[in-house]
Each structure stands twice: as structure tokens, then as C-alpha cells.
Design a protein that fits this description.
By secondary structure, this protein is an alpha/beta fold. The chain has 17 helices and 12 strands. The strands form 2 sheets. The chain has a 7-stranded mixed sheet, sandwiched between helices. The radius of gyration is 21 Å and the shape is globular. The protein binds NADPH dihydro-nicotinamide-adenine-dinucleotide phosphate (NDP) and 2-oxoglutaric acid (AKG).
Amino acid sequence: MSPQIDEKVEPIFQEVLKRNPGEVEFHQAVREVLESLGPVLVKHPEFADRKIIERICEPERQIIFRVPWQDDNGNVHINRGFRVEFNSSLGPFKGGLRFHPSVYLGIIKFLGFEQIFKNSLTGLPIGGGKGGSDFDPKGKSDNEIMRFCQSFMTELYRHLGEHTDVPAGDIGVGGREIGYMFGQYKRITNRYEPGVLTGKGLDWGGSLVRTEATGYGATFFVDAMLKVRKEAFDGKICSVSGSGNVAIYTIEKIHQLGGKCITCSDSNGVIYHEKGLDLNLIKQLKEVERRRIEDYAKYHKDAKYIPNGNIWEIPCQVAMPSATQNEINGKDAATLVKNGVIAVGEGANMPTTPEGVKVFLEANIAYGPGKAANAGGVATSALEMQQNACRDAWTFEYTEQRLAQIMKNIHDTCYQTAEEYGTPGNYVNGANIAGFIKVAKAMVAHGLI
Ligand SMILES: NC(=O)C1=CN([C@@H]2O[C@H](COP(=O)(O)OP(=O)(O)OC[C@H]3O[C@@H](n4cnc5c(N)ncnc54)[C@H](OP(=O)(O)O)[C@@H]3O)[C@@H](O)[C@H]2O)C=CC1
Ligand SMILES: O=C(O)CCC(=O)C(=O)O
């Protein structure tokens, strides 16, 4: 762990540990932000007076509920649902829902905490929140998914609203699940309220580019970091982990920008295709047929499937982790650096451990942390809310242009803030400080609430 937490901030972190026992991912996310904030308190003593850091670490509201559902054989199952409404200083709580068996309060709190600063960086009026369930969608039938989503929304709906809390997708939650939850919300409330969820279908209030936004946005962010170093994607060998929504559209944009992506993965193994990935096949396998990535190698005999492989051992120049938290540890980071990586852009949330982050920062590579690099998804969700509010639907070109501009702004804000605070090139500090200051100022303005 980095010893660099400021002495004024350390007691706040100790209190977070005490108040939230066992929530290790939440501790990790909080510590990483708090490490950046010492110099901010020097410039802004009012933040310390008003106990802004202490308040920002405590969610405004945490909802935990039972989700009973029946499988196709009539068996009853009970899952646990969560929604952590972390901070609404800049707008309604906004952030995705994750359905994965690993979900517990500590995961949802880490994601909700990150979301506060990410959403602030977008420059759009959205607060931070996150939710989900320990439900495992793998191997479930379409009807089982629908029954689960309906049961989940039957409890959650009372906490949502376009001006209150607006969920979207995350791991295990895509367009299909958003559709079932939207239908149930509409049925229970008797309101057609498109702005209550984002990531909706294009025929019923969704936005063009939302599906692509996180991956495209992360690639735009890395492109901006490369440009600072007089580099470009063109001709670069790239490695992407995961094979879900973020991974697929990261690969797509990398290819559009002239890079060659040679890897993807799922939780069972890694695909290595030296001549470059066949993205149409990945889309067919994952988006249409919902199969495992292993099957990719059945169609390309020159591609290798490595069961339980370590994707970060495959040499690349640009790495974009797009699967899950803590997928790059200190050793993986050192391997990437040794093999010549020049840029790492995080499509996933907190995919690098603190030890890995330290390796990247010390090696002075271009390292874009998730809360900045993957903000394009939630930013485009906010654009979807704008379209819903004025009952409009923008073109793909216009929406992508807005996304590209937002990502450029986020990059420049992080870059300039890092310089201003004496750590040039450190996007971790830049993102944490810039994201924090905007929320902190709003909290001061709103008084003690
Ligand atoms: N969707 C969005 O708009 C945004 C997503 N993110 C983040 O991006 C990441 C990916 O999300 P998304 O693409 O939407 O999710 P998907 O469910 O579409 O895909 C997730 C991918 O990551 C793999 N994965 C998930 N959990 C693990 C694990 N524990 N170990 C190894 N592999 C794993 C999955 O493999 P398998 O099928 O085997 O589980 C799958 O390939 C997450 O960190 C998410 O929080 C960030 C910003 C926005
Ligand atoms: O689009 C959204 O509201 C949420 C996206 C998300 O979950 C994230 O940024 O991690």
C-alpha cells in the first residue's frame, strides 16, 4: 500500500475502516481517492471545516432488499438486492446495476463511491450511485431473467425516478435486463417515464451510441493520452480483457483508429489471436448467441484459447482492462511494463490493484484510471436523459461527437489538474482532485445536509 496518505486525511480513512468492516473493495477505492486529497485541503480549508471528506465517504442512503424469484422448474430462490445512493450534490443518483454472484455491499459501495467522482468529471448534472444483486445470470433462461428483473424492480421502483435515482447497466445487466426492469417500473407506477433508466432500447427512449459509449469513450481517452506523448493508436498492438459490452466496443474503436487488438477473455480463459481479433465473430458469440469466448477458437484455427490464462503476460503496447476489479496486480503491471506497454486505459472499474497502480505511475507510462477513462458510458447515459427530457432522438454522428468532446474535456481536466497540483502526467491525482472539488463545492453550497 502507498504510505502517502496525508496526516490530516489519515484519521478520516481510519474511521472509514472502522465504520465499514470487511468491505475491502470499498476501503481500496476510498484510500485511492483520499491519497490525492491532502493538497486540496491546503488550498480549500473550508472543505475540512465542513467535514466534506467525512461526509462524501458516507452514502446518503443504502437500500438492501430481498429478491425472491422462481426458476423454470418452479423452485424458489432468494437473492439480495442493493442500491447505494451515494451522493446527489450534482444531480440525481446515477450509476449502473451489477448482477454477479460476487456482489455484496462492499462491491456496490466501491462502485458507487467511484461513480461520484466519475460523474462529476463528465461535467453533466449527475450524482453518484450504484446497485445490483448477487444473482448469477449465467445459464438462466430468458424467462428466469425476466422474472428476476421484475422481482428486483418490484422493490426498487419506490426509490427511483428521473429526478431521484436513475440506474443503468453494468456487469450482467444489458439491454435485455433494462427492458424487463423498465416494463415492470411502467406497470407498477402507471407512468411512462423514459428518464428513469438509461441504456434503453432504441425504439423506446434509448440513445444511439449508449451501447458503444464506454468502450469508445475509453479509447478516446487513451487516444488523448497518446497524443500528449506524440503517439497514436495507428499500428499499435493492443490487449483488451473481457468480452462483454465494454470490451467489444473498445476493440471496435481501437480497430477504427488503426490499432490491432490481439486478445480478449472471460472468467474462464483468454483468446490470443496474433493476426488481430475478428470482432464480428465476437459480437455474434457474445451479443447474439450468449456463448463462452472459448468458442472463438473453434472458428479460427490460428487463434489460441488459454484456459485460466493470464492475459497480461501477452506482450502489447496498449492495455485496456475491461472485465472487472483488481484484474491487474503488481506482478501483472510489472510484466506489462517489462514487455513495453506505453499506455493503460481502464474500461473496467478499479481493474488495477494499488500495487499495480504504483508500478504504472513509477514507470511513467500513460495510465488512465477508470473513473476518468470509462466515464463515456455514464456521460452518454446523461445524454440519453437529455434526449428523454426534451422528447428527442439525436443522430449517431452527433451523439458520438458529443461523447468524443466530453472525453477530450475529461482528459484535459485531469491533465491540467495534475499539473496544477504538482504531479504532471499523474491522471490518478488529476481525476481524483478535479472530480472531488466540484462535488465538494456543491456540498458546501448546499449546507449541512
Ligand atoms: N457497461 C458500462 O457502461 C460500464 C461498465 N463499466 C465497467 O466495465 C467492466 C465490464 O462491464 P461490462 O462490459 O458492462 O459487463 P459485461 O457483463 O458485459 O461483461 C463483463 C466481462 O467481464 C468478464 N468478467 C466479469 N467478472 C469477471 C471476473 N470476476 N473475472 C474475470 N472476468 C470477469 C465477463 O466474463 P464472464 O462472462 O465469464 O463473467 C465478461 O467477459 C466492469 O468493471 C464495469 O463496472 C464501467 C463503466 C460503464
Ligand atoms: O450509465 C450509467 O448510468 C452507469 C454506467 C456505470 O455503471 C459506470 O460508469 O460504472
